[in-house]
Specification:
By secondary structure, the chain is mainly alpha-helical. The chain contains 16 helices and no strands. It has a single domain, classed as Amino acid/polyamine transporter I.
Length: 415
């Protein structure tokens, strides 16, 4: 048993096992943040922004960093599972906390359902099995892994994350010679015109979603050693490393001579690699499929911790969702509930349309978390409380601004 996890004695209820340190948390965070997002979004953003693509990713990183700061501040003060719901409860009471927690869990299960179906469709082109059956098979397998233990789940996620990031590094390595072009840097460093600012805004609302995922880290607080010290660093390091990788990939994508195939591709990262090397895009496409597995596993782990944490906080019924397996020390019933919900979604509902709503829900959750920091800091006489209050209010305004801009973009007014 881990030294930081108190032993279960007598009739004491089992608790989650504290086995995670900073390195595994960062792997977890990068696994869910990088995931399949950059593999799919780089083409769309390149098609919208062209030479401005690196600037778009930089602006998106700054906007994501505003909310990341709020999560970093609050995770140290409230190191509990169901992080966003706990913050909302402290800031605004149980009513908004329930809505926030359910919103976080729903984004997880919908994302997992979408990714499972995408994986089933991809694998279905290689084996004569219905895609929905392959999706269910993947879901069952990963639910078993999630139930076995958090260490096992996060180690598997870390291994896949190494593969994902390693693949991006291979693409970056292949494109490094392109970055020696001084003319390229002149184009990248040119400040956009007034019309260009509109393009940056439109593309930033897309690129922002490639950074979403860092917030899932805080839901692992009760399985982390010294979370009051570690959680904030995990959030900051995850976002920083992700930004560096994205900027490198974006700069190399801009350097490619023929962008059209990449901008219109269903597998843009694979086509970018093929354009740079003249080789086959198949290996990179296969890695993108592996990234899907990571996305499903991490969403199962995240959503089950949210349900478990809400049940323990009295924010969700039935209370047995807060039950811990006495030997595995995982939220077994919450994990099964999440897996069952994902299965129903991918078999019954039009989840592609539901997935479009999850981005808005996530921005709504960011707004609540930021406003919780603002409200809690206003009540506090601690040193730095004014700064934290101003940070929370500013980050909330940015979250609302991104939400409005994205709604406008999707309705066709910009972009």
């Amino acid at each position: 048993m881990d030294a930081d996890t108190p032993p279960v004695t007598g009739n004491a209820a089992p608790v989650l096992r504290r086995v995670l340190g900073l390195p595994l948390l960062v792997f977890y965070g990068m696994g869910v943040t990088i995931g399949a997002g950059i593999f799919a979004l780089i083409g769309e953003i390149l098609g919208i922004a062209g030479d401005l693509t690196p600037l778009v990713f930089l602006v998106a990183a700054v906007l994501a960093g505003a909310s990341a700061g709020s999560y970093a501040f609050l995770s140290g003060r409230f190191p509990k599972a169901a992080g966003a719901a706990v913050y909302a409860k402290a800031g605004f009471g149980p009513g908004l906390a329930r809505v926030t927690g359910i919103g976080v869990a729903l984004t997880g299960v919908i994302s997992a359902a979408v990714i499972s179906l995408a994986f089933g469709s991809y694998l279905g082109t290689l084996v004569p099995v219905p895609s929905w059956l392959l999706a269910i098979g993947l879901l069952v397998l990963l639910s078993v892994v999630a139930s076995l233990g958090v260490r096992e789940s996060i180690i598997l996620a870390a291994v896949v994350t190494v593969v994902e990031v390693g693949t991006l590094l291979v693409v970056i390595g292949a494109g490094l010679p392109e970055l020696a072009d001084a003319e390229l840097w002149g184009r990248i460093a040119t400040f956009p015109t007034t019309a260009g600012l509109g393009v940056v805004l439109a593309a930033t609302t897309v690129a922002f979603y490639a950074f979403i995922g860092f917030e899932d880290i805080v839901n692992m607080a009760e399985e982390t050693r010294r979370p009051e010290r570690v959680m904030a660093w995990a959030v900051i390091i995850t976002l920083t490393l992700t930004t560096v990788v994205y900027l490198a990939v974006a700069s190399i994508a801009v350097a490619v001579g023929d962008r059209a195939p990449i901008a219109t591709s269903d597998a843009p990262m694979a086509d970018l690699f093929a354009e740079l090397t003249g080789g086959s895009p198949a290996p990179i496409a296969a890695i993108a499929a592996v990234a899907m597995i990571n996305g499903v596993l991490i969403q199962i782990v995240m959503a089950s911790r949210v349900l478990y944490g809400m049940a323990r906080e009295g924010l969700l019924r039935p209370s047995w969702l807060g039950t811990i397996h006495p030997r595995r020390r995982t939220p077994i019933y919450a994990t099964l509930a999440v897996a069952g919900t994902i299965a129903v979604l991918l078999l019954v509902l039009p989840i592609v349309r539901l997935a479009e709503v999850t981005s808005y829900v996530t921005l709504g959750v960011f707004t609540v978390v930021n406003l919780s920091l603002w409200r809690l800091s206003r009540r506090s006489a601690e040193r730095g409380s004014r700064f934290r209050a101003a940070w929370g209010l500013g980050a909330a305004a940015l979250s609302i601004g991104i939400l409005v801009a994205d709604i406008v973009r999707r309705t066709g007014a910009i972009g």
